[in-house]
Design goal:
Elements lengths: L5 H15 L3 E4 L4 H6 L11 E5 L4 E6 L12 E6 L5 H8 L5 E4 L5 H10 L4 E4 L1 H9 L3 H22 L10 H14 L4 E9 L20 E11 L5 E3 L2 E7 L4 H20 L6 H14 L11 E3 L6 E5 L12 E4 L2 E4 L3 E4 L2 E4 L6 E2 L8 E3 L1
Parallel strand pairs: 1-5, 3-4, 5-6, 10-18
Antiparallel strand pairs: 1-2, 2-3, 7-8, 8-9, 8-10, 11-12, 13-16, 14-15, 16-17
Helix pairs in contact: 3-4, 8-9
Length: about 375
């Protein structure tokens, strides 16, 4: 295959490191690693670490028994280490002489502490200061990958709305498992989550599906997503939330959902290039406040999405970062009435010069299912 994105990403990381005065970037487990070089490390007690000097060749230090899993690329050299070798010493030798080193945010504490001891006098920084803004701005290839993942999740959402997935009498956990299977059938390599929350359980935003059986006459909230690989083996996430009511919703629920729908539309309309992230949150939140539901909207309006389901930028009060072309994020206002019912409406979008582009398009109304 031609047109690999990795060379440009290494160049961008080095340029950003230079801006920050960082001499080397060390990336271990977490999303930075596959984004940068196409390899996803297993979270083992054996250290895997990509060493990216600001000047010089990058090296992937990897346990010898994991080396066969690595697709070697021209952007980095491979340094397998044996069971009797000290990988911390190997990494320390590769960055010897550096004064400031950025370490991956997800690196296990044991390795960070050992590195600090092996590199006395070296200032350690968070690698997200280098990689975060770069990963937040998706290129055209990444937007296409996110659209593919979103379209696959859309198929599952439409199946729910069409009544193709049986609900009444089944447990939340059973329905969740079916949603997961359908995500995989539609091309996802991994299911990240599949929330199914019936009745009063939907008032808990991150409810864990359990043995509660779904009944007629109540609402059900579905929030699910997975990871779908691009042609380079890098995974991009989907994330969508839709709600149904099993029968005709009572007036209070219908009115709450109508306000939520308007809140979602206001958030999407506000998500223009140049708009500060907090202003998108304010636009969505104002609708629910005006409807008397503001106290029941208990979380931010959105999160970034890409290689991780939650990443920069976050649409929340206090974040005055202006949206840029390529920023990808969710718009997901919610209304949660404890002990009664809850609703959330979520789509993920990319900021574009002509306006936000949604990755999902399943019907956003509160679908009544018989």
């Amino acid at each position: 295959m031609s047109g690999s994105p990795f060379g440009a990403r290494f160049d961008a990381v080095r340029a950003r490191a230079a801006e920050l005065g960082v001499d080397a970037v060390l990336v271990s487990v977490g999303a930075d690693l596959p984004w940068l070089c196409g390899y996803e490390a297993m979270p083992l007690e054996r250290l895997t670490m990509l060493v990216v000097p600001r000047d010089g060749e990058a090296t992937l230090v990897v346990p010898g028994l994991e080396a066969p899993r690595v697709v070697e690329r021209p952007e980095f050299g491979l340094r397998p280490w044996g069971e009797t070798e000290d990988p911390i010493a190997i990494v320390a030798d590769l960055v010897r002489g550096a004064g400031r080193v950025a370490v991956g945010d997800r690196t296990w504490a044991r390795f960070v502490i050992d590195l600090a001891h092996a590199l006395p006098g070296v200032e350690l920084r968070k690698a997200s200061e280098v990689t975060g803004p770069l990963r937040a701005r998706k290129d055209d290839h990444e937007v296409v990958a996110l659209c593919r993942a979103g379209a696959a999740a859309d198929v599952v959402a439409r199946a729910i709305q069409a009544g193709e997935i049986g609900l009444v009498g089944r447990t939340e956990a059973d329905v969740s498992a079916e949603i997961g299977r359908r995500l995989v059938d539609e091309g996802h390599q991994r299911v990240n989550f599949a929330i199914v929350a019936a009745g009063e359980n939907a008032a808990s935003p991150h409810h864990e599906p359990g043995e509660r059986r779904i009944a007629a006459g109540e609402g059900v909230l579905f929030d699910f997503g997975g990871t779908m690989h691009d042609e380079w083996g890098v995974g991009y996430c989907s994330d969508i939330t839709r709600c149904v009511w099993l029968g005709e919703p009572p007036a209070e629920a219908a009115e709450a959902y109508a306000a939520l729908h308007a809140s979602h539309a206001a958030g999407v309309a506000a998500a223009q290039v140049g708009t500060p992230c907090q202003d998108v949150d304010r636009a969505a939140r104002a609708v629910l406040v005006d409807a008397g539901l503001g106290e029941w909207f208990v979380h931010r309006t959105g999160h970034g999405i890409g290689v991780e389901e939650h990443e920069d930028p976050y649409l929340v009060e206090g974040n005055d970062l202006p949206l840029e072309v390529g920023h990808a994020f969710s718009i997901e206002p919610g209304v949660y009435l404890p002990g009664r019912f809850g609703f959330r409406l979520e789509d993920c979008l990319a900021a574009a010069a002509a306006g936000p582009v949604s990755f999902t398009a399943a019907d956003r109304d509160l679908r009544a299912l018989g």
